[in-house]
């Protein structure tokens, strides 16, 4: 998916100051970690353990067992 810098700039301009801080930290990490782009796509077959984990995640979602956004932000900041 091609995204223009103008689109990104528009989205950034609409962020709150709090969100802008988080996005800035994420962009800095992405800019510093270009080696992630070199990681090959996982083409290994899906195992039964994978399917079990996916099923467990769907069940947790149905039960409302979600991760709090604050916990995600805290992890991204660490």
UniProtKB/TrEMBL annotation:
Protein name per UniProt: Uncharacterized protein
Organism of provenance: Paenibacillus mellifer
